[in-house]
Amino acid sequence: MTDASHKERVISQYESCWAARGTEVPPPEGRRHELPADFTVLEFAPRDDRRMWTYATCCMSQPTDSRPLELHLFSPYQSAEPVEILTAVAHYHRTGSPLDLGHTVNFGKPWINESECEYGLISLPYLDGPKLENLTLPDGTVVKFYWLIPVTRQEVEYKKAHGLDALEERFEEAGFNYLDPHRPSVC
Q1: Are 60 and 118 contacting, i.e. CB atoms less than 8 angstroms apart?
Q2: Burial 49-66 (b: 16+ CB within 10 A, else e)
Q3: With contact defined as beta carbons under 8 Å apart, do 93 and 114 qualify?
Q4: Which residues of the chain have pLDDT under 50?
Q5: Are 111 and 121 in contact (CB under 8 A)?
């Protein structure tokens, strides 16, 4: 499989699930050269049945990865900040420690504007389910597509103390608004 066909498969997975075309947004320069050459972020505009901007990594995973992973992040409006965050998280995943379901990452900045959500939780794609979550490649490898949920420091500490399931229960009980950059912590 060539890198180009891998990229096409990743794009197709997003576009078929979300029934929309993504636009490639060039990632910020910074350490861009340390990411795969075909890495980009896709931007999906809101539509009638999905009233949010969606940003998604493309080729954060590579065909030779033992546990390929792609991430997406939602935003209440169009912004460069999700592109910067996804690029930084992809860089950490590729050059630091491999990420997986249930992991948290420090964004090093607010998710959007002055948000208290300065961390991300890698979660199942609850809004889209298995249709998005699993892409089986021709060699049988499964690329996982997970949701990067912006969370607060208190929520990260709660997850460390009580586990992922307990934090997700708190989200559900609070009916938290994952699109509100100024939402209160659920912990």
Answers
A1: no
A2: ebeebbbbbbbbbebeee
A3: no
A4: 1-2
A5: no
SS3 180: coil
Query: How many Å apart are CA 23 and CA 26, to the nearest integer?
Result: 10
How distant is the alpha carbon of residue 164 from its chain centre? 17
Q: Extract the tokens encoding 13.
A: 């997975």
* DSSP designation for 61: S
In the numeric block, which tokens belong to residue 99? 């990420």
The C-alpha torsion from 15 through 80 and 68 to 171, rounded to 10°, is -90
30: left (phi over 0), alpha (psi -120 to 50) or beta: left
- Its pTM stands at 0.94
CB contact at 8 A, 36 and 61: no
Task: Count the neighbouring beta carbons within 10 Å of the beta carbon of residue 137.
Answer: 15
pLDDT tens per residue across span 111-152: 998 899 999 999 999 999 999 999 999 889 999 999 999 999
Q: How many Cα atoms are found within 13 Å in the side-chain-facing hemisphere of 3?
A: 10
